[in-house]
Amino acid sequence: MDLTVVTYVVYLAVSVALTVWVARTLSRNGQIFLEDVLRGNEKLADAVNHLLVVGFYLVNLGFVALYLRVGAPVDDTRGVFEALSKQLGVVLLVLGVLHLGNVYVLNRIRRRSAMEREQTPPVPPQGWTAPAAGA
Questions:
Q1: What is the pLDDT of residue 135?
Q2: Which of 60, 69, 41 is nearest to 101 (CA)?
Q3: How far apart are CA 73 and CA 12, in angstroms?
Q4: C-alpha distances in angstroms, 82 versus 15, 20, 30, 91, 94?
């Protein structure tokens, strides 16, 4: 079998496995964070979590498919490892950037939500007190 094809097969297998593992890890561990961002609304947090996972799969697997091509033919075992390390390294970097982007956006939403909660009084005003005379 051609070593370039072997490189493609290994690259696809490892990339897809990494994508699935990262998506499941982020989904499982991000649920609590999403519930906090969305003020305890579990149904909405579940829906957003699912949409984020689907988007993550689409973007990352699309990138994996686009980045499949090896620049030069692979002639030996060393070439297989070099091509795989380059391609998988880029895939891992893209996974990391996507993760950091998601966390950044969700953290901004969480901060904005916390600021809005602090601006709203916990109890509506009961009445009004006039300033003391001579003050």
A1: 62
A2: 60
A3: 17
A4: 15, 24, 34, 14, 19
